[in-house]
Amino acid sequence: MRNKVIIIGAGAAGLSAALELAKNNINSIIISDMPSERAQSVMAEGGINAAMYTNNDSTELHAMETFTAGKDIADMNAIKNMTKAAPSIIQMLFEKGMSFTLNDNGVPDVRAFGGQSVKRTFYAASNTGKQLMYTLIDQTRRYEAEGLVERMTGWRFLRLIYSGSQAYGCELINCITGERKTLYGKVIIASGGLGGLFGNSTGSVRNTGTVTANLFASGVRFANGEFIQYHPITARLHGKNMLITEAVRGEGGRLFVMRDNKPYYFMEEKYPKQGNLMPRDVIAREEWLLMKEGYQIYLTMQHLEKKVQTEKLQGVVEDCIRFLGIDPTKEPIPVEPGIHYFMGGIWVDINHRTSMESLYAAGECACQYHGANRLGGNSLLGAVYGGYVAARSAISDKNIEITEQIKMRDYKINPKVFDRNLIRLQEILRKGLGIVRDESTLSLAENKIDSLIESVRKEQDEPLIECCLLGKAMLMSASARKESRGAHTRSDFPKENTDYQKQTIAEYTNGQI
């Protein structure tokens, strides 16, 4: 199957790419193991950023605060392009029927989010991702009916087809039958983050990280793997953590611990200007320090107005009652930091081209916009905008010419081996890449991964070996950055160092990282 752009992933970035291709009369085929309604983008709660409707705001200020939160290592030109496009994205979504929460003037309302000096986060109660996805799905179906967009649901990416620095397509596998199929064409990767390599993240358990791992093992560059965002307010569930949206803090929710039999509002005490709206990495570190002393962290929203609780935060209240057995309008929520977002990912340039021709990446799987720490509200923006840019690049780049059959070596998979050893890999990475790291924990984790690789090679499961290689690259990146910056905190190098004001690039070549 040729002459179609292949999109891996059916979330916000993937649908945005498909829509832009269809608008330009380019056929695409969306590959996903689950329908779009089950994509991780649906789980985003808080909002999507844009500088509009708010006094004293501008796209330049939005860009600067994004860059500052990212600790000065993101591509400022790329950030400016994204923030300039943000108002038109909000306007487009509103015109296409997205159910934003409206203010008294009948236009989309904005709320405060951490790390930002003005209110610029547009939202749909606490279900922004769900409403965004409904809108994108509805628009995509029009083009599906016209034949410009095709879906292969129930299939997943198995491996990239490439030769040298040129991508030619990918091999897929059916999730039920195990049947394999090969597609040729330009490939846009929109497969989400790497939560599956760690377990207990706030993301979808379907985001396994295997797509990025295969690309890395195929020689595609990976960047900033040491920067992992721990969201400061999550609740432990079976097998994963439940996100308590930042919108709770944006609406006035307060973090505290019980000290001397009374609440101690630690963020308000230490950071009186922004308090509970400090960037996520700062709050997560403060929580980590208190948890080391044996304290339980709590989030309270009991004091908020009834209208805020029942309308703006309705989804939070319902989720806490349903999954935690806690009514947050009557009692505080026990919370802890949880792995939430990966600032690092597949290296892309300003136009979302990867280091391999005819291969593009967008959304959380790509390393762009967020630097060392992501602002809340920028993930959905980056996904929608990134998908659009990746599609524009795929449209403008020359078509692939295949003059001879691409030689493909045998690719062995063993699901039982993968499942059994993935648990070991997750434990290694969680311990090695926690909120605070040092050389000894990183070195120990690297050694354990080397041993795991040796063990798995004998059992012949290539996807798990590739995941181990990517995990090791992330550990090596953290070890190489001998400073603390953003979401990367080293207890042995506690200060920021200007010598490291740059990206970390990892590449697998000639059998070495």
Strand and helix layout:
Blueprint: E1 5-8, H1 12-23, E2 28-32, E3 48-49, H2 59-69, H3 76-95, E4 110-111, E5 121-122, H4 128-146, E6 149-153, E7 155-163, E8 166-174, E9 180-184, E10 187-189, H5 210-217, E11 222-223, E12 228-236, E13 241-243, H6 247-250, E14 254-259, E15 262-264, H7 266-270, H8 280-292, E16 297-300, H9 306-312, H10 314-324, E17 333-342, E18 345-347, E19 359-361, E20 366-367, H11 378-396, H12 415-432, E21 436-437, H13 439-459, H14 462-480, E22 489-490, E23 505-506
Helix pairs in contact: 1-4, 1-11, 2-3, 3-11, 5-14, 12-13, 12-14, 13-14
Give a written overview of the molecule.
The longest helix is centred in the C-terminal third of the chain and has 21 residues, at 439-459. The strands form 6 sheets. Strands 13-12-17-16-14-15 form a 6-stranded antiparallel β-sheet. It has helices at 12-23, 59-69, 76-95, 128-146, 210-217, 247-250, 266-270, 280-292, 306-312, 314-324, 378-396, 415-432, 439-459, 462-480, and strands at residues 5-8, 28-32, 48-49, 110-111, 121-122, 149-153, 155-163, 166-174, 180-184, 187-189, 222-223, 228-236, 241-243, 254-259, 262-264, 297-300, 333-342, 345-347, 359-361, 366-367, 436-437, 489-490, 505-506. It is globular and about 70 Å long. With 513 residues, it is of the alpha/beta class. The chain has 14 helices and 23 strands. The mean pLDDT is 95. Helix 2 (59-69) crosses helix 3 (76-95).
